[in-house]
């Protein structure tokens, strides 16, 4: 009886606590729902029942964060549940609201009226996915909103502008696969906006940014999209994924964004090599380049050395060149006359990583150039094609890891052989020396190479 009484006291205390719990996260995982737990009932039906029961019992007092993730069994009639839950949650005091509908074709109209009359004035983060969001001028915006994240949301450019003009505190705007937007205009009154991300918006034609303090911009889309980013001298971080972005980054960005500190470019197709120009990225410290498209022709990887010459402050360089079928000439097909780029020295680059390292001749030339010209190098990581594919990436329906294709295995072996024959001899003779054996105040390269059973080669 004593134990029962204690359990009863604890239960009542817990009941009172969760009815005022400030952070509610609803998904099948957080509720422990699976086919075994649900029995004959569909997990989706049990999910709606449980969430509905919890929220109707919740007092609504002190609720600051609400996240609802629906990943199965959604139909139009279920919108009544969502409307009911949002009416409970959207009240003065709510700070973060996340609604994610995973099922393809889910048709839900977010009730924007719930955000009016001050009910949503405390919301700082709004994340909506796969629904319709149709704000009007009468709704206005959310005066405390600092981050807006819309993914697969049906909203037009005019509706979004209407909402943004009434959200003066916004700092981050993320738009992903919002296919109703044709023209995106970011108003000047968003003085606090510092991060803008736009990707996968299929019908987008124009991005016109007038917000004066955007320092980070991430874009993924077609070459037909016209970019007008306004003031770019304060731009410190840029991520771009589009065809020809490597050439564009080297040829255009040093003059338009000279203060970049981090640059990431991903290109599926490059028709022109990176040019050797006098323009500089004087403040660039981190550079990531990915050229992984199957449609790309054979690329001269050695031309990427022009980025080293253009970025004297560069500290980290990551290169991803993984391709299913190598189109470049192998170094073993033409081992003679390996090119060298004389006179280019770099004294700050410390870490270089190459993913998808192959026996491509120009890639071997680039790697040799890195070892010969970068005096500050501390770590060089070369990851060959088969090590780039994790077992989890090629699991079949039975959960077993499927074997690698023979051509990938063969190229992996050629890549390792290329490292042994053409790369290792370029490692400084001081490799492996202790820190006390420094030369001219620069720590020598430490060298560790395991090639027999590992496809990843690391030089330290």
From TrEMBL:
Provide the At1g61320/AtMIF1 LRR domain boundaries: 54-431
Q: Which Gene3D superfamilies match?
A: Ribonuclease Inhibitor
Q: What is this protein called?
A: At1g61320/AtMIF1 LRR domain-containing protein
InterPro entries in the cross-refs: At1g61320/At1g61330-like, LRR_At1g61320_AtMIF1, LRR_dom_sf
Species of the source:
Urochloa decumbens
Which Pfam families does the entry link to? LRR_At1g61320_AtMIF1
């Amino acid at each position: 009886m004593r134990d029962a009484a204690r359990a009863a006291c604890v239960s009542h205390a817990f009941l009172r606590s969760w009815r005022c719990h400030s952070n509610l996260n609803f998904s099948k995982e957080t509720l422990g729902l699976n086919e075994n737990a649900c029995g004959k009932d569909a997990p989706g039906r049990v999910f709606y029942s449980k969430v509905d029961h919890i929220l109707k019992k919740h007092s609504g007092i002190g609720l600051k964060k609400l996240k609802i993730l629906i990943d199965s069994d959604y139909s139009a009639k279920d919108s009544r549940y969502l409307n009911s839950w949002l009416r409970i949650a959207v009240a003065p005091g709510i700070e973060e609201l996340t609604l994610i509908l995973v099922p393809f074709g889910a048709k839900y109209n977010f009730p924007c009226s719930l955000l009016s009359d001050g009910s949503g004035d405390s919301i700082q983060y709004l994340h909506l996915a796969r629904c319709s969001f149709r704000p009007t001028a009468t709704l206005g915006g959310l005066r405390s909103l600092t981050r807006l994240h819309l993914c697969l949301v049906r909203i037009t450019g005019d509706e979004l502008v209407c909402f943004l003009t009434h959200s003066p505190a916004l700092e981050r705007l993320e738009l992903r696969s919002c296919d109703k937007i044709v023209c995106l205009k970011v108003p000047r009154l968003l003085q606090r906006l510092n991060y803008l991300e736009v990707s996968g918006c299929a019908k987008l034609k124009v991005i016109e940014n007038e917000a004066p303090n955007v320092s980070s911009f991430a874009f993924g889309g077609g070459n037909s999209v016209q970019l007008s980013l306004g003031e770019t001298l304060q731009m410190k971080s840029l991520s771009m994924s589009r065809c020809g972005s490597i050439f564009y980054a080297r040829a255009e960005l040093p003059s338009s964004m000279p203060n970049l500190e981090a640059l990431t470019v991903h290109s599926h197709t490059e028709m022109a090599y990176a040019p050797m120009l006098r323009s500089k990225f004087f403040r660039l410290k981190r550079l990531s380049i990915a050229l992984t498209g199957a449609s790309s022709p054979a690329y001269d990887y050695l031309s990427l050395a022009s980025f080293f010459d253009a970025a004297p402050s560069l500290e980290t360089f990551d290169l991803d060149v993984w391709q299913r079928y190598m189109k470049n000439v192998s170094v073993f097909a033409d081992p003679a006359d390996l090119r060298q780029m004389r006179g280019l020295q770099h004294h700050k680059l410390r870490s270089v990583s190459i993913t998808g390292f192959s026996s491509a001749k120009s890639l071997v030339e680039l790697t040799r150039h890195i070892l010969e010209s970068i005096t500050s190098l501390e770590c060089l990581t070369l990851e060959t094609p088969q090590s780039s594919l994790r077992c989890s990436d090629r699991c079949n329906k039975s959960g077993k890891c499927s074997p690698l294709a023979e051509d990938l295995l063969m190229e992996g072996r050629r890549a390792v052989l290329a490292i042994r024959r053409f790369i290792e001899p370029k490692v400084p003779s001081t490799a492996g020396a202790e820190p006390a054996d420094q030369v001219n105040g620069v720590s020598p390269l430490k060298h560790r190479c395991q090639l027999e059973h590992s496809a990843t080669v690391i030089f330290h």
